Known about the structure:
single chain; alpha/beta; Rossmann fold; 7-stranded mixed β-sheet; 40% helix; globular
Amino acid sequence: MTEAALREILREGLATWGLSLTESQEELMIAFLEDLGAANQRMNLTAITDPEEMAVKHILDSLAAALAVDLEEGKTLVDVGSGGGLPGIPLKIFQPGLELTLMEASRKKAEFLEAVCKRLFPDGWQVIWSRAEDAGRGSWRESFDLVTARAVASMRVLAEYCLPLARVGGVFLALKGPEGAKELDDAARAIEVLGGQVEKTVPVLLPKGAGERLLIAIRKKSATPANYPRRAGIPQKRPL
């Protein structure tokens, strides 16, 4: 697929949501997709390898976050379990003024994220090689305006990974598929215990019949109790 065709997919998809990119932002998105595709030959970053699918199911899917939260210049965003850099890197390209932190437990993936960010961004980013539970129990606790997670875990588990990292007044945004509403119901107690309150859910249709997404925005209303998150591995084994 040509670069021009990829640009057109991005433009048409974003236009349906009232969003747009500059030409230089489009170039960065395409450069990121190239890096992601190349690195995927060496490590398991994505099961999607077709460039058109990647543009829709990775880039546009990530940018849908802008429909649910304010991506203001100067805001601090941590992308938990960032993997291949989604949604964090596309959101940083979309809003260069974000202070981006990519958090990843796999050392190889963290090294990939570091290399990509060095190429794409002059500043305003960092990569943390850490499990979310360890970061939430340490110096990163309640540090971020916005916490994002995509394709990481169920909402019951994800809430314990992410809410401890959000400052009081901040937002945890989960990018979920059609099962998101059921997961949210199951996670109601966990969200309350961890200091969160559901602010809104935004259903999104991806272009080209690529499916439905549910964006779940949870406002951090009060400090997370000191005993959360529990030790690494426990939230997955014994969800709240």
